[in-house]
# Entry
Amino acid sequence: MNVTETFSEGLTRTFKITVPAAEVDQQINRKLGELAGTVRLPGFRPGKVPIELVRKRYGQSVMGEVLDETVRQSSATAVTDKGLKTAGQPKVEVKSFDQGKDLEYELTIDLMPEIVPADFSTIALERLKAEVTDKEVEDDLMRLARRTRETQVAEGRTAEKGDVVVVDFEGKIDGKVFDGGTGTAVPLELGSDTFVPGFEDQLVGAKAGDTRNVSVTFPADYVFTDVAGKPAVFSVTVKEVRSGPPAAVDESLAKKVGLDSLEALKKAGRERLERQHGQISRAKLKRKLLDALAEKHSFPAPKNMVESELANILGQVKQSTGKEPADADKTEYRPIAERRVRLGLLLSEIGRRNNIQVGEEELRRALAAEASRYPGREREIVEFYQKNPEALIQLRAPIYEDKVIDFILEMAKVTDRTVTAEELIRDEGLPTD
# Structure
């Protein structure tokens, strides 16, 4: 085998690899011989089919197998012999391949960049923490009561305060639909003040089938900062008007959700909010840490990994918008793809250097948690992951990342600051009322 480097720029290398015809033919003849010993053809006893007949009938498929195997083995040997550490999948372009001729192909690879982790003790971070207040618990339980409130369609009458209207809506700011500004079949209790101030008041007096333009101004401290303080117009179609007893937080609500008492319901509500606060606090701290790591580390990102990550991002954009991303989107999202790749490689290197691993018990718990999301199909989900190593790697990845993040946080300077729940959840898209 002959290996010649033909291109070198940044982390990218291209090699011309030639495998002698004799070596390729030897592999083809070996496979044809193995096939001749097992193939069954009319008029021939098993194992007695002439090799030339086998070649004529199966030669193309055998050559395809040999090509795949030879490229895989020879490219791996070339990379190993040169002591290269590759990033992502290589690109192979076959230049020449035929029986009796040398196999020639181009192998393009991206190399892993050199990564030197910073001194994590120089990273200073602030962790936001919020205590759960009695009012938060009461408000949360009232939202639960409203969601589970039993109502009936109020045929032929207009909506009053206390009624539930089921609406479709589309909101626009400066004439453009904004993220989170649309909804379908959304139940809304008039007078509950759960939506933008002034929104519910403008639906009083509406009846099923009505469409109204509702003008509001988002509060300056609204949970989504990109629309905070801005005026918006919603086109709202009322699908149903429903009425029923007012929502109440009482013993019957506790029993409705499977708990023994109102006290147990309040305790469960408080614990859920505490978990939610903890998750948001950690998510924000992790975001700050990743920003700090991105600022402290500068190394080139392998092109093939960036292109792969960019394709993933654009695929998500297409799925959420229903439109094919434009060239401008590719330009906009490329820096995000590069950042993600660099951070991923950095966290992986930190984990490797410090022997951070995901234990089998941790993986089993994650698999059980994933399976529990599909009631009645738990066994099927577990078997799927057990039979698909790549899927199992995807399940392991976030656990590994969290362990590396925890490792870094142990060495970083983290100070706590107590804030209100509203401050904590700002930009997280959670209810603050």
